[in-house]
């Protein structure tokens, strides 16, 4: 066993399907941690979200909270069988473990975690044949439901595809794409104003984790669904790499340049709140 393999901590992650089934059964909220949140906890800024000591503290506290029926806490499914992923993803996570080995060793670990990749079920997998089942499970979470999407100005999640076509209705709160945490209280109050009796879908980086956890404690169901729109676009086009989307934000393309926003009346009419 080489040094990189030795760096991988023993953390138990439930599958995408198990995570989706748990959410459906218990009407749970979900907060997903990825490399960006781990960076912030360890005092680094990331694209779209500068480091904040308060944010870092909140993220660490949530990460060390055991999942329960109210709220699932998720980590990436990379702690076993890393060979499931393409070479680029494998190399990325090996580098991540080399950098954060001590962090994971010292982390007050839960018995198990939900699967962060519930929103990333396609592009990094070497064998992508499971993606259809994964997307079906995820999309079933908002089947025939009134949903409130909370997203950045350039996200436009579901615009131009069928991702949320099975929802009963779609409303949106549009938030700053950069440093959304600075507007945390405004965003939270807007969600409380418009989110009652709705399934809240959060697509707002690290800020979504704090929002989702707090909302779950106040009786709302909020699912941090992240970059699922990019994944769904790539899945529908059969992409083998992270193709830049022309008309909205693209995952891992960390600077929203050269985006051509198309007029879309359904999108515009779905916006019920703006935080600037």
UniProtKB/TrEMBL annotation:
User: Could you tell me the keywords of this UniProt record?
Assistant: Transferase
Glycosyltransferase GT-D fold domain boundaries: 31-253
One MF term in the entry's GO annotations: transferase activity
Which InterPro entries does this chain map to? Answer: GT-D (IPR014869)
Q: Which domain of life is it from?
A: Bacteria
Q: Name one Pfam family in it.
A: GT-D
Name the NCBIfam families for this protein.
glyco_access_1
Which protein, by its recorded name, is this?
Lipopolysaccharide biosynthesis glycosyltransferase
């Amino acid at each position: 066993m080489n040094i990189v393999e030795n760096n991988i901590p023993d953390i138990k992650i439930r599958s995408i399907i198990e995570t989706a089934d748990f959410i459906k059964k218990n009407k749970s909220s979900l907060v997903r941690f990825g490399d960006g949140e781990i960076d912030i906890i360890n005092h680094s800024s990331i694209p779209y979200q500068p480091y904040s000591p308060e944010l870092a503290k909140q993220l660490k506290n949530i990460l060390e909270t055991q999942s329960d029926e109210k709220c699932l806490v998720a980590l990436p499914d990379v702690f076993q069988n890393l060979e499931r992923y393409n070479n680029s993803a494998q190399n990325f996570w090996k580098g991540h473990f080399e950098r954060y080995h001590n962090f994971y060793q010292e982390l007050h670990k839960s018995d198990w975690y939900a699967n962060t990749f519930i929103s990333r079920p396609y592009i990094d997998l070497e064998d992508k044949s499971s993606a259809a089942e994964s997307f079906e499970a995820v999309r079933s979470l908002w089947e025939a439901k009134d949903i409130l999407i909370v997203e950045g100005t350039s996200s436009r999640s579901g615009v131009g595809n069928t991702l949320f076509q099975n929802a009963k209705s779609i409303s949106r709160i549009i938030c700053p794409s950069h440093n959304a945490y600075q507007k945390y209280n405004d965003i939270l109050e807007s969600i409380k104003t418009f989110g009652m009796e709705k399934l809240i879908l959060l697509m707002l980086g690290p800020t979504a984790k704090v929002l989702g956890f707090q909302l779950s404690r106040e009786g709302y169901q909020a699912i941090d669904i992240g970059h699922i729109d990019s994944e769904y676009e790539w899945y529908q086009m059969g992409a083998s790499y992270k193709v830049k989307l022309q008309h909205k934000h693209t995952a891992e393309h960390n600077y929203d340049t050269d985006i051509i926003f198309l007029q879309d009346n359904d999108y515009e009419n779905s916006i019920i709140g703006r935080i600037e």
